[in-house]
Design goal:
Blueprint: H1 2-9, H2 14-23, H3 32-46, H4 52-62, H5 65-72
Amino acid sequence: MKTTLKDRFLPSSYVQDSYDQLYNLTQGSMNVDECTREFEKLSVKCDTQEPEEQTIIRYVGGLEPEYSNVVEL
C-alpha cells in the first residue's frame, strides 16, 4: 500500500531529490541542532541502510569545521 501511494502521489524525482539533499547537506546558516534535525529527517525520508560509521562521517562532514573538529575529538 505504501509503495502504491508513493507511486501515485509523489513526483518521480522525489527520492532522487531527497538523496541529493541528504548527500549535499551542509550546516550553512543553521545552528547545530537545526542541522541535526534536518539530517535525521532526510535520513528517515531516504530510509538509508548504511553502516553507522558512514552515517557519522556524512553528518560530521556537513558541519562547519569549528563544530566538526569538536565532534571528531
